[in-house]
């Protein structure tokens, strides 16, 4: 079953997992901005695939200037939230724009490994600025960098000639050297993708 609000489609499981991940991160990181939340979601998927071959949230990420970005989530968090309004409150005050939890965190969609990974991401990346997280996700030979380079958009993005593209970040390159993780990823996509 897909959760559909307008043109946005996430499975019910994805919506609940991403929504509760937002709650978890907002509880642990004061003044969690949209850019920081989007970067941390990507980092969770990247680290999870790299370690186990199985995605954390199984989102699709596009090559944008401040990407990688899940377009559906970006759009929802940028406007009047439809998908995530039951999970997060959008606050705009003298401290800027940030999210606070709208309910208690539910771990129903999370494995013990997921919780450990979220704790690690908060510890390693929670104090970094949005700009530092963008720099991390754009590092040389990272999936975003490789996709931008491969599709000849690295220079236009870096030179601010364009802000976004329709090109997807290929997270499977993280496990290209490991056939067992590739098979786990493929099996996961067949089951849940």
Can you characterise this structure?
The protein is built from 8 helices and 6 strands. With 193 residues, the chain is an alpha+beta fold. It has a two-stranded antiparallel ribbon with strand order 1-2. Strands 3-6 form a two-stranded antiparallel sheet. The protein is globular, with a radius of gyration of 16 Å.
Protein traits:
193 residues, alpha+beta, two-stranded antiparallel ribbon, 15% strand
Describe the structure concisely for a colleague.
This protein is of the alpha+beta class and 193 residues long. It is built from eight helices and six strands. The two termini are 12 Å apart.
Please describe the topology of this protein:
Layout: E1 2-5, E2 8-11, H1 12-28, H2 34-52, E3 62-64, H3 71-78, E4 88-93, E5 96-101, H4 112-125, H5 130-137, H6 143-150, H7 154-158, E6 164-168, H8 179-192
Helix pairs in contact: 2-4, 2-5
Radius of gyration: 16 Å
Count of runs of 4 or more consecutive helical residues: 8
Q: What fraction, in percent, of the residue positions are helical? A: 40-55%
Mean pLDDT, rounded to whole units?
92
The main sheet orders its strands as: 1-2
